[in-house]
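Record passed on underneath.
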Amino acid sequence: MKKLFILFLLLSSFLAKADEGMWLPLLIDRLNHVDMQKEGLKLTAEEIYSVNNSSLKDAIIQFGNGCTGELISSQGLVLTNHHCGYGNIQSHSTVEHDYLANGFWAMNMKEELPNEGLTARFLVSIEDVTKRIIDQLNDQMSETDRNAKIAELSKVIQEEATKDNAYQARVASFFNGNEFYLFVYEVFRDVRLVGAPPSSIGKFGADTDNWMWPRHTGDFALFRVYANADGKPAEFSTNNVPLKPKHHLPVSIDGYQKGDFAMIMGYPGGTDRYLTSYGVNLAINLSNPTIVKIREKKLAIMRQDMDADREVGIKYASKYAGVSNYWKYFIGQTRGLKRLKVYEDKQKIEADFTAWVNAEPNRKAKYGNVLSDIENVYQVMAEYTLQRSYFVESVIRGGEIMTLAQSFSGLAAELKAEKPDAAKIARMQENLRKAADRHFKNYNQPTDVKLLTAMLQMYYENVPVNQQPVSFRKLVDRNKGDFNKIAQTIFAKSVFATPEKVEAFLKKPSSKVIEKDPAYSLVNAFLEQYRENQKNLEKPGETLARSNRLFVAGLREMQPDRKFYPDANSTMRITYGKVLDYYPADASDGYPTASENSVQTPPESLIAYRARR
């Protein structure tokens, strides 16, 4: 009988020495299974990934919008990270019932809490559709035409995969557009909170330890997937029953030993393993420090108000966690890139690539300009990196009133149409009411005033003047550089400042009112300027996409005996290794970060387990 031992790597007193790859489950039989057996694997490839029979893939879900969860009971019980369930825990928390501070445990299934919009995505199958797509492409296509053709073919393939069933499908690109795979999913929409430890356990170490290795946090939460009486996906209903999954991971408390085989399955978000030295240089010296600087300011503002009022603390807990996660990530990434000399390593790879290309005329014709084209594109990108970072972080993700105002652009356009569609307007009104309810549920206007003030000032002071909206510069001049005055005026006059004003507007919507609104007109000015700036990157962007695709293709051609794994892209992956010792360095600045080995977005809740006969 096989037993599966669940091992949280972040909690263990050992490290797992892992194969560095993020391998597709579909390909492990061909690429990895022999090596995995040498490391100690006792399972067959079919027991890990199978379309026709129950396998481990059926116990691993994509939890929510990108995390990973594991089915650990025959009654649909899901184990995931505390930080992955954090937003749902927060949504149920109040000052009177502070589940963030005190934890939450349902004593029976009736006490489990529903979560609107939360999903559990089960992988049904993976299919290689590369030939079907590549055969319809050619080297004479522009990148725009190529992408359009890929989208057209992908749509057809996805529709075929979901015909006469309730599945969802996605064709994903791999190796920078050199390969394509179809992923089919069954998505369950009734997922309920079962239990979570207090944040003193679930977020132990908080921002200080985030992205550091090893961690000793109890980063877990429990949920349950529900289905209808037939075991199929259904919206929340009291008539739904716990899902009986095709496979679940029995929990063992036997422990583990140094040298034991460990395997990880999950949904890593995204990596850039094949990024060139030019991209690494831009990340180290410009984009990463800029994002860190902006987020540091946001966090300080939120933290001050959260510490002063527990109600505000609860409302902003999930937002703060979201901002701080990648604030710390980019700090650690930059540090890791420097410490591991990734830039220099990339230069060596590129020198080897150049020598290989120049050794043969046909290679030179195909790949000869790839690296020089990439270098030229990054020189152009560097000129616009600040405006992009500040637009995204300070405008779109800055003052929340700006984001809410911008969401009304579709309604404004329909109201201005020559023949407005009354039914469409009514649908928009209803959707915007729901969006406004979500917006104001976890909102504190004084905090947003401070955020808007600071973000506008940072944008003004750091983005090149010729890349800023002229109307914004004039607004600052008229107010003599008083950004607090600008923010206060916006909140005093905008229909998006309070739920009452939004509701009054939605009862009697007017395109003139929207377009004259100070929050709406300002965010639109930023958006229009951003689009103008981005036009200067359209052709360089096409060149970069083509060159990156050729670079990765060339690397694989240059090393035909090497097993290449694709970058993460929120699809199921596997990695493996052995459990080894680690050597703690408490109260030291010497921890490496989890992201130091590559430029990457984190795999969220990845489960490692040992299989034994």
